[in-house]
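This part of the workshop introduces the protein records we will be handling. A record pairs a protein's sequence with a compact description of its fold. Comparing a sequence with its tokens is the quickest way to learn the format. To make this concrete, we reproduce a full record directly below:
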Amino acid sequence: MAITVNIYYSGRNGNARKFAEEMVASGIVRDIRAEQGNLRYEYFFPIEDGETVLLIDSWENQQAIDRHHVTPMMAAIARLREKYDLHMRVERYYPDEGGVPVGDSAFVRE
């Protein structure tokens, strides 16, 4: 079962954005996206909070996440979090096997 993890990185003086930019420029993001089991790894910038970056990180299952957590990339990510003095808030989501409820489908434009 796929698992999506939302990670909110927060800092000061634009450090969260600098962190995301360095993650991309260093090739770490590219390497994570190439890992077996990774479905999505994308950064977003909340419009009302310039000091936070949202990472949407999705994996095929917990085993894929566990494999990712023991890669050398995790040490590199930890170093960058320390460099930019970031704090994190994490949310985990699982797919809704039933799809969009009928009552909600009226509000979805495809």
